[in-house]
Amino acid sequence: MDWGAYAPVVVGCAGPQLSAEERVLFGVRKPLGLILFARNIVDPAQVKALVADFRGVVGNRFAPVLIDQEGGRVARLKPPHWPVFPRGAAFGEIYARDPAAAEEAAYLNYRWIGAVLTDLGIDVDCAPVADVPVEGAHDVIGDRAYGRDADIVGLVAEAVMRGLSDAGVMPVIKHIPGHGRSRTDSHLDLPVVDTSAEILERSDFLPFVTLRHAPWAMTAHIVYSAYDHVLPATLSPNVINRVIRSRIGFDGVLISDDLTMKALKGAPAVTGPASLRAGCDLVLHCSGDLPEMQALFAALPAMSREAVRRVGKARNALPQPRPFTEAERARYQTLMEQVSV
Predict the structure, then answer these.
(1) What is the reported pLDDT for 187?
(2) Residue 97: CB partners within 8 Å, gap ≥ 6?
(3) What is the DSSP string of 193-229?
(4) How far apart are CA 146 and CA 339, in angstroms?
(5) What 3-state class would DSSP assign to 54?
(6) Which one of the listed residues 123, 131, 257, 281 is annotated catalytic?
(7) Staple partner for 280: which of 42, 214, 217, 275, CB 3.0–4.6 Å?
(8) In the annotation, is 281 catalytic?
(9) Exposure pattern of 197-225 as b/e (b: 16+ CB <10 Å)?
(10) Phi, psi of 34 (to 5 degrees)
(11) In angstroms, rounded to a whole number, what is the distance separating the alpha carbons of residues 195 and 225?
């Protein structure tokens, strides 16, 4: 597979089918992957058709198709066609009573989510959330997190990763190097974290160190003043190279969070190339805005040699899906009986 033939971007589309204009743009510019949102989802048959159509248009049957299916309030697939899955905090609540049960429940939960995704042709889930919220932080992470203890978050997130991988789905750890201290929603403004490097390295970064072998990770649009007083992690060579690649030791595919979030100032055609220059392998453009995508594609360089290596390595390491059995489903339901979703 010549991954270098594809643009280093994962795009959204406007609706439940590719428009004629999107088909032309994607066929010519060849984005590496697609990300799905609620606006793109009607029912299983439609999702399968959209996924297959995108891969046909870009000429790559292995083109990554992403979705945010964490469970709880971040779930693009909803009833009546798909189950309700619990919020991340549920596994921290189980952990307080029985650590082994929490890890098993998290594993089985994401085995089930992974089976749902695999059935639709989706092969990348933007989970686990490895952020560690602190007192007074904005609720943008909140109950999406597995707890407030870095070690517990790392252990549960590791089980989440194994569950997705065993289902044939690549996990994306987020939001590296940690969104838990943000007092602002990065969808709306740029958060600044003034915490010292010493504290960050012995708390916020720890789950990501545990998960450093993950195939993919998504950056945080946050300024970490201890490392860069001006630029958020997504745009900061210092944070990406010194923290994410060196201190944390992550060598998988690094994708930006959505370029259209208000934390990033400037058009995606400017911030996209800047994030690649800073050290991201790929950028993420979610809105489906056609003129913005056209401008972004025109501004993007070719995928770097390291990005090609990492994308290929992640894909080659993906196991064959293992069916989610009725026995596993029954065990999962027993583990979750006393937990509110």
Answers:
(1) 78
(2) none
(3) E---HHHHHHTTTHHHHHTTT-SEEEE---EETTT-S
(4) 13
(5) helix
(6) 257
(7) 275
(8) no
(9) eeebbebbbbbbbbbbebbbbbbbbbbbe
(10) -130, 145
(11) 7
Share the mean pLDDT of the chain.
95
Cis peptide bond upstream of 81, omega within 30: no
Give helix 290-299 / helix 20-29 axis angle, nearest 10°. 10
Reply yes or no on whether the pLDDT at 3 is more than 70.
Answer: yes
Own/partner long-range contacts of 237-245 (Cβ < 8 Å, ≥24 apart): 237/277, 237/278, 237/279, 239/177, 240/278, 240/279, 240/280, 241/279, 243/177, 243/205, 244/176, 244/177, 244/208, 244/217, 244/219, 244/279, 245/279
Residue 291: partners with Cβ closer than 8 Å, 6 or more residues away = none
- Rounded CA-CA distance 301/211 in Å is 29
Distance in angstroms (rounded) separating the CA atoms of residues 136 and 248: 25
pLDDT, one tens digit per residue, over 142-175 is: 999 999 999 999 999 999 999 999 999 999 999 9
Task: Compute, in degrees rounded to 10, the torsion defined by CA atoms 300, 305, 306, 309.
Answer: 120
Q: Is residue 341 very low, low, confident or very high in pLDDT (cuts 50, 70, 90)?
A: low
Structure tokens at 297: 């594609």
HSE-CB for 216 with a 13 A CA cutoff = 32
Question: Alpha-carbon distance 33 to 11, whole Å?
Answer: 6
Sign of the CA dihedral running 275, 281, 287, 292: positive
148: helix, coil or strand? coil
Any catalytic annotation for residue 187?
A: yes
Question: With contact defined as beta carbons under 8 Å apart, do 13 and 46 qualify?
Answer: no
User: Of these residues, 43, 187, 194, 213, which one is catalytic?
Assistant: 187
Dump pLDDT digits (tens) for 46-61. Answer: 999 999 999 999 999 9
